[in-house]
DNA sequence: CTTACTGCAAATCATTTGCATCCCT
DNA sequence: AGGGATGCAAATGATTTGCAGTAAG
């Protein structure tokens, strides 16, 4: 697997994903093409439902089961991450071209800010090692409120 | 690493929770008592289903809707945390008497190890502050594989 | 040609809700 | 008493699966 490049265009990402899946013996269909295009065409976290709607604008024949089946393949192949925030539907996001990152969720507006940090990652790796584990994947979610009005920061 | 207030007995926790809910104008019933007892009687993360089973050993009349309704109250009151791991059912855990902690999930056995660390917390607070936020609640989940095992996954 | 992929409809599964009744306060 | 709380059963909503037809390789 080549190093992710944050300047990858959507087209490049789509092609990379297509090739990665083909390499795994997966057949390439119009529906999958539409789903991938919808997926790389946004920088937000999409629910399966939102993705279905987007994909249908490319190819109206796409159905929900196909979206879910394709998402499974993508998650399996580590091309897409699945996240379950709170009690809502799962959200999916393309991993290509962005290093793994963490989430700061604005609990007032529902905004999601992404950030990365090597020190944090190193710290997490250390804990895993101390317990005899190696991290396969990690997830950090900070539920936070904006500091602006009457609040005194800590 | 020791939790700050880990000396609370289950009985004390149960009483504290009862009083906190009563203060919010909630009525105290046998079913809720049973649910709370089941909840404080374990140190593991319970699903609603598991909690229902445990609670029924105290009071067989407890039903699933009551478990969910009570869990909502508890989460609202910040007495219990709800977590949704991967695609599974939500897990609930009493917050009383344990500092917030993080999770290391053994992806092979499904084991969950908890750990706490001030340096990590400080780092997270720093990030939030840099973005103009204050953390209300944070969640760190490490999906990891045991090191001592031959690992052939990609 | 072969068989993976698709849409549809029906099946799951956890969680929620309507409702008549019950029982804390 | 009175209104919140309960159990039951049915509703929900996201995700999955069975199946017969379709299309990728």
Briefly, what is this?
Two copies of one chain form a homodimer. With 154 residues, chain A is of the alpha+beta class.
Provide an overview of this structure.
Two copies of one chain form a homodimer. By secondary structure, chain A is of the alpha+beta class. Chain A folds into two domains: about 10-95, Winged helix-like DNA-binding domain superfamily/Winged helix DNA-binding domain (Arc Repressor Mutant, subunit A); about 100-145, 2-Layer Sandwich (Dna Ligase, domain 1), CATH 3.30.1490. Helices cover about 40% and strands about 25% of the residues of chain A. Chain A has helices spanning about 10-25, 30-40, 50-60, 65-75, 120-130; strands spanning about 45, 80-85, 90-95, 100-105, 110-115, 135-145. In chain A, the strands form two sheets. In chain A, strands 1-3-2 form a three-stranded antiparallel beta sheet. Chain A has a three-stranded mixed beta sheet with strand order 5-4-6. Chains A and B meet through strand 4, helix 5 and strand 6 of A and strand 4, helix 5 and strand 6 of B. Chain A binds a DNA duplex (25 and 25 nucleotides) through helix 2 and helix 4.
Summary tags:
homodimer, 154 residues, alpha+beta, Arc Repressor Mutant, subunit A, 2 domains, 3-stranded mixed β-sheet, 40% helix, disordered C terminus, DNA-binding
Show the largest interface. A-B, 43 and 42 residues
Mean pLDDT of chain A: 86
What kind of sheet is the major sheet of chain A? Answer: 3 strands, antiparallel
N-to-C series of helices and strands of chain A: HHEHHEEEEHE
Q: Would you report the number of β strands of chain A?
A: 6
Structural domain count of chain A: 2
Tell me the name of the CATH homologous superfamily of the largest domain in chain A.
Answer: Winged helix-like DNA-binding domain superfamily/Winged helix DNA-binding domain
- First-to-last CA distance of chain A: 42 Å
Strand line-up in the sheet with most strands of chain A: 1-3-2
What is the class of the largest domain in chain A in the CATH system?
Answer: Mainly Alpha
The CATH architecture designation of the largest domain in chain A is Orthogonal Bundle
Helix content of chain A: 40-55%
Multimeric state? homodimer
The rough form of chain A would be described as globular
Structural class by secondary-structure content of chain A: alpha+beta
**Low-pLDDT regions of chain A:** 149-154
As for the CATH topology of the largest domain in chain A, it is Arc Repressor Mutant, subunit A
Helical region count of chain A?
A: 5
Strand proportion of chain A: 15-25%
């Amino acid at each position: 697997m080549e190093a992710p490049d944050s300047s990858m265009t959507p087209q490049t990402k789509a092609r990379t994903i297509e090739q990665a899946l083909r390499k795994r013996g997966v057949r390439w269909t119009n529906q999958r093409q539409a789903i991938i295009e919808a997926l790389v065409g946004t920088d937000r976290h999409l629910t399966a439902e939102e993705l279905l709607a987007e994909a249908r604008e490319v190819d109206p024949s796409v159905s929900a089961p196909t979206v879910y089946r394709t998402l499974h393949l993508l998650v399996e192949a580590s091309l897409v991450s699945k996240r379950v925030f709170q009690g809502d539907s799962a959200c999916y996001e393309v991993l290509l071209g962005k290093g793994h990152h963490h989430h700061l969720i604005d609990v007032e507006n529902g905004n999601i800010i992404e950030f990365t940090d090597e020190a944090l990652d190193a710290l997490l790796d250390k804990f895993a090692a101390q317990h005899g584990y190696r991290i396969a994947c990690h997830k950090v979610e900070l539920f936070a409120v904006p500091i602006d009005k009457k609040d005194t920061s800590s």
